[in-house]
Amino acid sequence: MASTKAAAALSRYAVATMYSALPEGVAERTKMLIYDQLACGFVGGDLPAGKVIARFADAHRGVREAAVFGLAGCRAPAALAALANGTCGHADEFDSVHSTPDFIATGHPAPVIVPAAVAVAERQSATGAELVNAVALGYDTGARVVSATGGSAPMQANYGLYAGSLYCVGAAFAASRLLGLDQRHTLYAAALALNQGMSGYSFFAERRHMSKALFTAGQAAAAGVSGAMLASLGFEGTDDVFEGRGGILPSWGQPGREGELVRDLGREFAVMGANFKFYSAGYPIHAAVEAALMLKERYGIDLAAIAGIHARLPEHPAGVVDDRGMPTISLQHMLGVALVAGRLGFDEAHSAALQSDPEVLRLKSLVTLTGDPDFEVSQPRGAVITIHLTDGTTVEQRVEHPKGHRFRDPQPGWGDLQQKWNELLISRIGAQRTDEFYRACRTLETIDDTGDLVAILVRI
Questions:
Q1: How far apart are CA 4 and CA 256, in angstroms?
Q2: Does 410 sit behind a cis peptide bond, omega within 30 degrees of 0 on the bond before it?
Q3: Of the ranges 123-132, 179-188, 311-320, 368-377, which one carries the lowest mean pLDDT score?
Q4: Per-residue pLDDT for 242 more than 90?
Q5: What region, left, alpha or beta, does residue 153 occupy, with left being phi > 0 and alpha being psi -120 to 50 degrees?
Q6: Residue 460 — very low, low, confident or very high, per pLDDT cuts 50/70/90?
Q7: Distance of alpha carbon 368 from alpha carbon 169, whole angstroms
Q8: Phi/psi at 66 (nearest 5 deg)?
Q9: What is residue 394's DSSP assignment?
Q10: Could you tell me if 50 and 89 are in contact, meaning their C-beta atoms sit under 8 angstroms apart?
Q11: CA-CA distance, 379 to 16, in Å (whole number)?
């Protein structure tokens, strides 16, 4: 058995988890995440990254174990479906993100863990309750691993690595639970996943949000499934990828955070740290967009009267979204689109016409951005927007936490998520199936076969 306390504790916890032991609020939050992420992946299948990765999966599909979004009728082996659906699930920047209770940003667990768990659940004909339990477990293990490294900022600055890749470990735990692996083989799965799933940071420099979707989500989801499948066949890895030689903590752990691996395991559930998105853009942009739209509405601002826009964000997130080539992770571009359109949903964020609109480009050119190190502690996902008007007037708005954030009251409910997805899903599958999908997710614990849920979205 594993030689360290963390590996033993995590694997022991994993094999004992079950839906009936989840607190009601945790189970409900997990079902909301599954609903949100499946919708996100299905809609993301219409974007370039989703279409290309679906064609890749179709060309190599082999055994028809799980549905693939982005190409009607396509089914593929579970690991390949996880690769494709994870990529689709981050293609639109509408997927949720996560932060710890002490404000550490851990990345995008949903498009890693949910597609991995769903693909294996389809393969195994697992129940909805088993799926919910596996996703909650994937969050609990994956988020703790990322937290122990200090999260996104130190992993990028110190090692040039994308911290969210570590959610491949959570995906491996989720897949292992659905496959019924014991403690030792679950640990093998985690080790095998880690060494397939890690990614550098260069994808932030691309323009079309394709490899970002693949390496933020798809690759890690596939690594988790592959690791678990290999372990289930008897393939071995180290039984301590956490604290053992060359493991996560010795390689990337942040001093003082070693205890995060097992802190409050079984008492504090990581799904409660999910931050739902209600703007289709990189998460550091959300508070700024909300503040800008509040100012526009409150003061009835004529866009032609705007002479300048200044945004103040926490230092690390500011660097992530400062004038990027990808419009959906460019603060300047998304502020321009949001102000012109009056909102920033999926259609606005991905509209070629809006992205090249002369007024959008004019407003984009007026935006200046400052990274404020004090914000890293005081409001790590907040923003202050100052708009300067041609008559000399200046108006300002601060947003501490954007809508959907774990520390924003009121917390989003099922109605908020239904409103987010209804229009997008109805235009693709009709009102009846959209409502059927929503109701199935709300009562997911009663579904006998996860494949029945997926089939509502993807008729095969």
A1: 17
A2: yes
A3: 368-377
A4: yes
A5: alpha
A6: low
A7: 38
A8: -150, 150
A9: E
A10: no
A11: 37
Tokens 């195994």 belong to residue:
124
Q: What is the pLDDT of residue 196?
A: 96
Rounded CA separation 416/358 (Å): 33
Residue 386 DSSP code: E
- Of the pLDDT bands very low, low, confident and very high (cuts 50, 70, 90), residue 378 is low
Per-residue HEC secondary structure of 151-181 comes to CHHHHHHHHCECHHHHHHHHHHHHHHHHHCC
User: What fold, for 283-399?
Assistant: 60s Ribosomal Protein L30; Chain: A; (3.30.1330)
> Please, what is the angle between helix 78-90 and helix 24-44, to 10°?
80
Residue 376, pLDDT above cutoff 80: no
How far from each other are the two terminal CA atoms of the chain, in whole angstroms?
43
Q: Which pLDDT does position 381 carry in this prediction? A: 80
Torsion, Cα of 211, 214, 219, 222 (10° steps): -150
| Token output for 263 | 């802190």
Class of the domain covering 5-278+414-457: mainly alpha
CA-based radius of gyration for the chain: 21
Please give the Cα distance from 431 to 438 (Å, whole number): 11
Question: pLDDT tens digits for 286-307?
Answer: 999 999 999 999 999 999 999 9
Instruction: Parse the chain into domains and list their residue ranges.
Output: 5-278+414-457, 283-399
Average pLDDT of span 209-220: 94
What percent of the chain clears pLDDT 90, i.e. is strictly above it? 89
Please give the mean pLDDT across all residues of the chain: 95
User: How would you classify residue 43: left for phi > 0, otherwise alpha for psi between -120 and 50, otherwise beta?
Assistant: alpha
Helix (H) or strand (E) holding 313: strand 306-314
CB count, 10 Å around CB of 406? 19
**Could you say which DSSP state residue 27 is in?**
H
Query: What is the reported pLDDT for 377?
Result: 65
3-state secondary structure 263-284: CCCCCCCHHHHEECCCCCCCHH
Strands annotated E in 59-140: 66-67, 75-76, 97-99, 105-107
Counts of helices then strands in the chain (DSSP H, E):
21, 9
The structure tokens listed for 109 are 């667990």
